[in-house]
From TrEMBL:
Organism, as annotated: Arsenicicoccus piscis
Encoding gene (name): nei_1
One Gene Ontology MF term: endonuclease activity
Taxonomy of the source species: Bacteria, Bacillati, Actinomycetota, Actinomycetes, Micrococcales
Protein's name in the database: DNA-(apurinic or apyrimidinic site) lyase
Cofactor(s) needed by this chain: Zn(2+)
Catalysis: reaction(s): 2'-deoxyribonucleotide-(2'-deoxyribose 5'-phosphate)-2'-deoxyribonucleotide-DNA = a 3'-end 2'-deoxyribonucleotide-(2,3-dehydro-2,3-deoxyribose 5'-phosphate)-DNA + a 5'-end 5'-phospho-2'-deoxyribonucleoside-DNA + H(+)
Annotated PANTHER family: ENDONUCLEASE 8 (PTHR42697:SF1)
Family designation: Belongs to the FPG family.
């Protein structure tokens, strides 16, 4: 699943391709918005909020999309009509066409009503004005909840998925099953939030990130930057114990993290 860093890179790519130009192609292949036509509107900006993409038009309309598990946006040169069966949104300007593939959500909202679709999100770890105090307050609101599950909850902090949550917990030497209250009693919550932010910010411009999932599917090892994610069965780079997988959260939304049971406590 694309995490906050990948979504932010996608927003930047879409913004660079479309902002400031009139829309010449508008084709939403999504039942609830299939009849909408925003040709002639100008793209004001494309921004990321957590894992959500907000494409704002000068008509006061926002195209809201979410990549969910397998979605992506690709930008290509203008050309013949898009015949890709996985295309769920096609937005074109004179110089570029953006194709949203396998999107998990496509909807239109008034720009002034964006809070209805992203207002539930906790502080965005990639926001330059990230509010760490607010993130800590939201963490502490569920003291008995395990850290792994809590970090993945976008209402607490926005941006982390299983990959960077695993890495943040390892960096902070905290276990995914350790409760918020336990970590707080040891005065470690602030460090965890700081590590999560540092890791996600670094990932935005880090090497090899965008190709990670492709390489993972091909059976290649993850980039060296990963210390525990995708490394179950291998030695922990910090203490040498065997990295394990653990399920966090409740079915059907349970997710799998990797961690070192010896040095993450
Ligand atoms: Zn270890």
């Amino acid at each position: 699943m694309p995490e906050g860093d990948a979504v932010l890179r996608t927003a930047r790519r879409l913004h660079a391709a479309l902002a400031g130009a009139p829309i010449t192609t508008w084709d939403l292949r999504w039942p609830s918005v299939a009849t909408s036509d925003q040709r002639g509107a100008v793209t004001v900006e494309v921004v990321a909020r957590g894992k959500h993409l907000l494409h704002r038009l000068d008509r006061g309309i926002t195209l809201h999309t979410h990549l969910r598990m397998d979605g992506s946006w690709r930008v290509r040169a203008p050309g013949p009509p898009v015949r890709d069966p996985w295309a769920r949104a096609v937005v074109g300007a004179p110089g570029a066409v953006a194709v949203g593939r396998r999107l998990g959500l496509v909807e239109l909202v008034r720009t002034s009503d964006e809070h209805r679709v992203v207002g539930h999100l906790g502080p965005d770890l990639l926001d330059p004005d990230f509010d760490a105090d607010e993130a800590l307050a939201r963490l502490r609101s569920t003291p008995q909840r395990p850290l792994g599950e809590t970090l993945l909850d976008q209402r607490v902090m926005a941006g982390l998925g299983t990959m960077w949550a695993s890495e943040a917990l390892h960096a902070a030497a905290l276990g995914p099953l350790t409760t918020v209250a336990d970590a707080d009693a040891r005065d470690r919550l602030g460090a965890l939030v700081g590590d999560a932010r540092t890791i996600l910010v670094a990932a935005v411009d880090g090497p090899g990130r965008s190709t990670y999932r492709v390489r993972a599917r091909a059976g290649a090892p993850p980039p060296a930057e990963h210390r525990v994610y995708g490394k179950a069965g291998q030695p922990c780079p910090r203490c040498g114990a065997t990295v394990r997988s653990v399920e966090v959260g409740q079915a059907p939304t349970a997710r799998t993290l990797q961690w070192c049971p010896r040095c993450q406590v």
